[in-house]
Specification:
Elements (H helix, E strand, L loop, with lengths): L3 E6 L2 H10 L3 E4 L12 H10 L3 E5 L11 H16 L4 E4 L10 H11 L3 E4 L9 H10 L4 E4 L10 H11 L4 E4 L8 H8 L3 E4 L2 E5 L22 E5 L1 H11 L2
Parallel strand pairs: 1-2, 1-8, 2-3, 3-4, 4-5, 5-6, 6-7
Antiparallel strand pairs: 9-10
Helix pairs in contact: 1-2, 1-8, 3-4
């Protein structure tokens, strides 16, 4: 079976590890604890220099919902322009209306701006009111794939919807399960849903080299809990093990 792994990479370092592990593609994001936002120019540029595999970039100006203002939409268009200039292979987008439907006008403008780049509709799909209506709308926009957990917190819990989406999509669009996918459940998800592409992070904690640590201050505040003296970095060994689990 011709399976493809996309690694959700939080840094250029994670991109390199993903490539080393045999990933087909990376999706570069910042602020993954907040669901992922557009990475910096520097991160995109350096990742492109270091990668021979496909590089996709999320276009998301902030965390939270997927109902964007006119100003935020302008920012996304500018970020897509920058991604094109840097030689990115694809962008990852998703705009919704206030009623939880696919925003056809806003998404069309982003897709047109992407030009020849591949377009993935991200997990904004999981916040849509009607998954099957949304599927047809995204297909009509000519996106290449949908990243989805089957409208559950994790893909393993969304297997039944994922299976139906794969069936209804046929060859018209790729359904790519993501969220909580790992070496232990990927084979089950593949077998039960019929999906061919999968999205996961394969990260391990890396301890900070800081010796002095001020215990009285947290840079991240309290709303989003982050271990400030530890980085989560994709590990090539985990990527390899996941690929091996998928191909048993």
């Amino acid at each position: 079976m011709d399976y493809k792994l996309e690694i959700c990479a939080n840094s250029a370092a994670s991109c390199v590890e993903a490539q080393k592990g045999g990933a087909y593609r990376v999706e570069l994001c910042a602020a993954i604890p907040e669901g992922g936002t557009t990475p910096s120019y520097g991160d995109i540029s350096v990742a492109r220099e270091l990668l021979n595999i496909k590089l996709n970039v999320i276009i998301r100006p902030r965390s939270g919902d997927f109902l964007y203002s006119t100003l935020e939409h302008k920012i996304m268009l500018k970020d897509i322009e920058i991604a094109r200039q840097l030689g990115v292979d694809g962008v990852v987008i998703g705009c919704l209306t206030a009623k939880g439907e696919v925003d056809m006008e806003r998404n069309r403008e982003l897709i047109d701006a992407a030009g020849e780049m591949s377009v993935t509709f991200h997990r904004a799909f999981d916040m849509c009111r009607d998954p099957f209506d949304s599927l047809e709308k995204i297909i009509s926009l000519e996106c290449d794939r949908i990243l989805t957990s089957g409208q559950q917190q994790q893909a393993e819990q969304g297997i039944s919807l994922l299976k139906e989406l794969v069936h209804r999509a046929g060859e018209r669009i790729i359904i790519m399960p993501g969220s909580g996918v790992n070496m232990h459940n990927i084979a089950t998800i593949a077998r039960e849903t019929g999906a061919r592409e999968f999205h996961l992070s394969a990260r391990k904690p890396v301890e900070s080299a800081m010796i002095y640590r001020n215990p009285n201050i947290r840079m991240g505040g309290t709303a989003v809990v982050i271990e400030e003296y530890e980085q989560q970095v994709t590990h090539s060994g985990l990527v390899k093990k996941t690929i091996a689990a998928l191909n048993i």
